Amino acid sequence: QLRQTRVTTSSGRVSSLKEDMDVDAVSHQVTASWKRKYAQWLLQLDVNYSDFQFSRTESVRRTILTTGSVNTQNLPPDSINPRVVTPNLGLAWSPNAGSTYRLVYQDVTRSAGAASLAQQDTAGISLDVPGLEGGGRLKRWRLQGEWELGGDVFAKAFVDHRRLRNLTSENGSLLNDAADISQVRRLRQQGVMGAESIESLAGTAGGISSGVVQAAGLVLEGVSGTQWGWSAAYLHHRTVNHLFPTEPLPDYPEHMVRLGLNWFAPNRWVIRTALTGRSERTVFDSGKGSQWLQPDWDLSLSAAWQDESKRRLFEVFTTGQLRKDVSPTYGLRGIWRF
Questions:
Q1: Which of 22, 182, 284, 321 falls between 20 and 30 A from 6, CA-CA?
Q2: What letter would DSSP give residue 245?
Q3: Within the chain, which residues score under 50 in pLDDT?
Q4: Which residues contact 31 (CB under 8 A, 6 or more apart)?
């Protein structure tokens, strides 16, 4: 039997100036978390208080053709200050050492910053959901089963129903586009064998004001001998777009598949490759509106080295190979822990 109770407070601030637009977001959050583990059961209850202060000012420049002078006009500012108290409920059941079943309800507001000391999961289900911007609210039900098959294969199946509501103006357009934290998500959303979660690859293009995402998926991960690991995943989406009811939410393809292979090379190197396929989907462009993208593939490669004490890590990687809509990305990452 294990009991754990803790209260955390966190604050964050993001300010940006883009051409003629000034955005300032400040968040204050308090989370009280209670956990109890008894025999095969884990219970969790969180109570979240969120105070999010958002303001945006925008100006428009107009050129008078007859005189050539430029006038600057300030538009009415957007100011929103939602305060909410919401619960998270979680239940996990492990009937034996090789299986776990989780059922959670999550109702949270995302903070202004990219990091927080507050509880980041509910009964083992992460709160990090792509498409949720700072100040946005998530309401989610999820049922998930996990199994160890034969000692060297791990399986996970889930169904997920979530409602996303980001900060919007009176006409429904998105107010707060968060800073790009794709690499933070990349570190959090890793599977058993270090492969990036297939769920973290959908809904990342932005442009979601309000909608519903229904997802169902199956993930298999395994090892072969001492030098090889593999993964296979399938994800199915259905979405409801509250702003444009005739179109799906941006960057949520109906079908996704991901195949991965890992080589645990000599001298503590790990070489990873993954191939991700997406069916037809939409992306949102502020100037052109929704654009349809044809099915495509995405090839990613990485090579990582870590010392025995796990205090130093070095990685080179590339993503976006074979994609038709974006150029490939190349990256270098180093971590030193003291």
A1: 182
A2: T
A3: 179-194
A4: 7, 8, 9, 10, 46, 47, 48, 49, 118, 119
